[in-house]
Amino acid sequence: MHDKSDNRVVALIEEFLTARATRKPSPHTQAAYRRDLLAVAALAAELATPPLPLADLRIGALFPGLLRSAFARFAADRAAASVGRAWSTWNGFFSFLVAEQVVTGNPMPAVGRPRAPLPQPKPLRGEDTPELLLASAARGEGRQRDPWPERDVAVLALALCAGLRLSELLALRVGSLGGRPGERRLEVSGKGGRPRVMPVESDVDAVIGDYLDSRVRRFGSRTVRPDSALLVDRQGVPLRRGGLQYLVESCYRRAGIGDRVPRGARLHALRHTFATRLAEDGAGAAEIMRLLGHASLASSQTYIEVTAAQQREAVRANRTNRSVVRVAAGSGGSGVEDGR
């Protein structure tokens, strides 16, 4: 229940974040909400007439004009995607305040929202790269104090063959894998709390089974209870964000494919590879959306568009096709007419 006597923006932000915590956002997401809210609020306090300390800024001072000025200053040195994310966070914040009857309306529609281009897929480069990566992890190559190839292969397979995000991998429980042999499925807690069910191919099922068997050998059967984390470190402790990122980076390094991993998409490159291969195999945007847990069909459509563009480029680059074009042109154009 909101204390109507306290309309300080900082206090209301904390109240909003507490309410959002019931949706179980990742700590990374929750931190981003707080950072965006406080950054714009601080700019609004600075631009107010007269300027105010952030702690003294009241919600009633946030008229559309002041918010527009604050967002303009916020956008000056940030990418459109970052500004759009902050706009969405503030829109959610004011929607919460309207529902709590703290304010009578949401001013954010009067604040310009940038149109951020959809991020382009960043799959692993090289047709054989996923196979090289998995083969290297299975051999347990490299200088490792305590190699655990079964675990490493399971992590890579879940990202490459099921397209799971980092947060989704960390949220998996042993009991998330269900169904009869040959009909296995994985229950995934997706972004924004959206659940989805992924079919598990027999090869991936076997990889996960090998990993769980190796885990029993290492730590005993009590560590594979249905409610325990599926992915653990070499001490049997549930993997955390940094540990999972380091694990994948180590696999890249041992496989010698660091130059094939796009910048800014280290673990996410595995998910993008999964989606790109779906598109190459003819999956439609709706199917990609369902399997990847996208909130927007447009996000899924980018994989199809990029794949189509790459295929056209490959056709243009094909020497045989260029030779055929030259022959057709030298024949007086009859071949072109016949092909219409």
UniProtKB/TrEMBL annotation:
State any single GO MF term.
DNA binding
Entry-linked Gene3D superfamilies? 1.10.150.130, Intergrase catalytic core
GO BP of this protein:
DNA integration; DNA recombination
Q: What Pfam families does UniProt report for this protein, alphabetically? A: Phage_integrase
Report the PROSITE patterns cross-referenced here.
Answer: CB, TYR_RECOMBINASE
Please state what the protein is called.
Answer: Integrase
* Organism field: Micromonospora endophytica
